[in-house]
């Protein structure tokens, strides 16, 4: 009977280098997921604050409404080109 050895089932010795590489991979995967959404939220917040400061009226939420309207218009225009 032939004994076929499969590399996937072989036991590998513990390595801090392999653990570090795995953790580093998890870190960059998490960063790739969170960075675009966090950056988008920050930009939207800064634009809402900037739009609120443009209007002389003290109407709470007006900047948010204007920004949502502008984002929707940009989405509409982008969908016409795609």
Please give a handful of descriptors for the protein shown:
82 residues, 72% helix, 2 helices, mainly alpha
Structural account:
Helices cover 72% and strands 0% of the residues. It is built from 2 helices and no strands. It has helices at residues 16-54, 62-81. Helix 1 packs across helix 2. The longest helix is centred in the middle third of the chain and has 39 residues, at 16-54.
Blueprint of the fold:
Layout: H1 16-54, H2 62-81
Helix pairs in contact: 1-2
% residues in beta strands:
under 5%
Largest sheet at a glance? none
Helix content: over 70%
Distance between the termini: 61 Å
Please tell me how large the radius of gyration is.
25 Å
Low-confidence stretches: none
Per DSSP, the total helix count is 2
User: How would the global form be characterised?
Assistant: elongated
Secondary-structure-based class equals: mainly alpha
Q: Report the count of strand segments.
A: 0
Element-by-element helix/strand order: HH
The pLDDT mean sits at 83
């Amino acid at each position: 009977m032939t004994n076929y050895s499969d590399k996937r089932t072989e036991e590998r010795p513990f390595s801090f280098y392999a653990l570090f590489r795995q953790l580093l991979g998890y870190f960059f995967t998490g960063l790739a997921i969170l960075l675009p959404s966090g950056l988008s939220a920050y930009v939207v917040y800064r634009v809402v604050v900037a739009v609120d400061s443009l209007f002389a009226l003290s109407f709470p939420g007006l900047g948010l409404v204007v920004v949502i309207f502008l984002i929707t218009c940009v989405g509409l225009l982008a969908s016409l080109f795609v």
